[in-house]
Amino acid sequence: MPLALIVVLILGPLAITLVVSFWQKVGFSMRPAISFENYAAFFSGTRLNVLLRSIWVGVSSAALMLLLAYPIAYLIATRLRAGLVRPVLFLFAVPFLVNYVVRTFSWSEILSRTGSVNTTLVALGIAERPLDWLLFSDFAVYLGLITAYMPFMVFPIWLSLSGIDRRLVEASWMLGEGPFSTFRRIVLPLSMPGVMAAAIFGFVGAFGEVAVSLILGGTGYQLLGNTIQSALNTLDYPLAAAISSVATILMLALIILWAQIFDLRLLLGKIMGRT
Q1: R_g over Cα of the chain
Q2: CA 87/CA 56 separation, integer angstroms
Q3: In the chain, where are the structural domains located?
Q4: Any residues with CB less than 8 A from the CB of 132 and at least 6 apart, and which?
Q5: 3-state secondary structure at position 6
Q6: CB neighbours (10 Å) of residue 51?
Q7: What are the distances in angstroms from CA 122 to CA 127, 129, 165, 201, 247?
Q8: N or C: which end of the chain has fewer CB within 10 A?
Q9: What are phi and psi of 220, to 5 degrees?
Q10: What was the pLDDT predicted at 267?
Q11: Is a pLDDT exceeding 90 seen at residue 252?
């Protein structure tokens, strides 16, 4: 029964989307067919540029999030007392109690010309006039993506780090290895399943983003999610399905690659009692 439910609710819509991607748009409707014109339209012109930009934004923002999330997860896993771990992790989940669109609009207000950041910079004499590049720019988009998706990255890294057998670290110290060498040769390799899982979470979120790019980047800042939305607004459902299928296949390939390289038990071993 659970497997059938997964097939119906998840795989079913994906299969329908893939089928519709080969249909043809006729006026305000669509016609069943086997045509690659929607994929040809996607992989040419400005839409291809949007795909490349989306990949770059996804990769670069995921890298920035990893640089921030890994030290935080490391400190939580190795430095905090056991009684403080859960409260601290809960604090990272608190922002998700507020809709992320609302949080994104809050950033647009904070970064605007009359927002608190520009007001403070001008009042302190750091800037002579409000800074225009704080909003509707790459800076604003990356800031929105990092604050929206980085908490997703802390949890899998922390889970992977907390599952490492401390006896391995102690053995490294007893054999004369220093802290940095122990981290490089023991801790970092063993935490890679969590790192890769976090990277996938960050990339997938940024790659298909809609609200952050529209609100903080402006109407001219297009990522893949905005392209899908534009196709839907013009009732070009086959094209939207083709773009969605390409995005789904890319994300599925990343997940399969991760599953082939790393054993899932290395990431979930602590929960599954197999550490």
Answers
A1: 22
A2: 35
A3: 45-272
A4: 113
A5: helix
A6: 20
A7: 5, 6, 51, 37, 43
A8: N
A9: -85, -5
A10: 54
A11: no
SS3 262: coil
Which among 62, 92, 55 has a CA at the least distance from the CA of 227?
55
Structure tokens at 274: 């197999």
Q: Which two tokens stand for residue 161?
A: 């780090």
CATH class entry, domain 45-272: mainly alpha
* Type of residue at 168: L
Helices (H), the chain: 2-6, 12-20, 37-42, 45-78, 82-93, 100-111, 116-123, 138-162, 166-174, 179-182, 188-207, 211-217, 224-233, 237-261, 264-272
Give, in order, the Cα–Cα distances in Å from 101 to each of 51, 127, 139, 140, 232.
23, 29, 18, 14, 20
- Tell me how crowded residue 256 is: count the other CB atoms within 10 A of its CB: 10
Query: 210-226 pLDDT, tens per residue?
Result: 889 999 998 778 888 88
- In angstroms, the first-to-last Cα distance of the chain is 31
Q: Which tokens in the block code for residue 22?
A: 């080969």
Residue reference for tokens 């669109």: 101
What is the tens place of the pLDDT at every residue in 5-24? Answer: 777 788 888 889 999 999 99
Positive or negative CA dihedral for 167, 172, 175, 180? Answer: negative
Which 3-state string (H, E, C) describes 50-118? HHHHHHHHHHHHHHHHHHHHHHHHHHHHHCCCHHHHHHHHHHHHHHHHCCHHHHHHHHHHHHCCCCHHH
Residue 41 to residue 243: CA distance in whole angstroms? 10
